[in-house]
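Appendix B, record 7
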Amino acid sequence: MKIIMSGAAAGILMALIACTSVLADPADFHTTADEMIEALTRPVLKFRSLHIDPAGESFAGDPVYETPASGQVMNRAIAVVENEDDTVSMTQVAVDNTAAASRVRTKILFDFNSARVRPESFPLLEEVGVALNSSQLADRPVVISGHADSDGPEDYNLRLSFKRARAVRDYLVQTCEVPAARLLVRGFGEHLPLVAEVDAQAKQRNRRVEFELAR
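Structure tokens (predicted):
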């Protein structure tokens, strides 16, 4: 699938990507269940998402990102995979350029060009499971968002990021006993990088999974 946008739209997209790079500080990553619970339960100001169909018509959808009232928010339309049949659709998301979003960002590691979670990330996933099964979050649906680096075709990366998020979901269901019905999966491909991909380490950081509450 080829995604076509105007020169002006491409310029806006690149500017917004630059804004998201400020989130690359290691302090933005969460490592314990307590940190994750705190991040996901802080008060937020709700934003609605906008789904664009192939004909260009739009309709109101569910929230994608939510940020605190003090956060600075920009909207951007990006491609996303959110169905098991790997269908690609366009979704407008609100991207804040602060570290205060109601979101858990984890350094779950994946092999290059693979949806296989590295074993050293299993303890971190178990912390996620503890958080999601806690009394504060046990009844809440959660969106699991997969992200890839920019190596390879854009369309392939969208599907790879979805498979990574799905692999995380499967681990949480099978090992941590989080109910599958609570976990929604989305793949954003290379469209929301944390850092400029200047080396292999930077690319590995962009291969990640994030968690947020579905409202």
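Remarks on this record: The two ends are 30 Å apart (CA to CA). The first strand starts at residue 50 and ends at 52.
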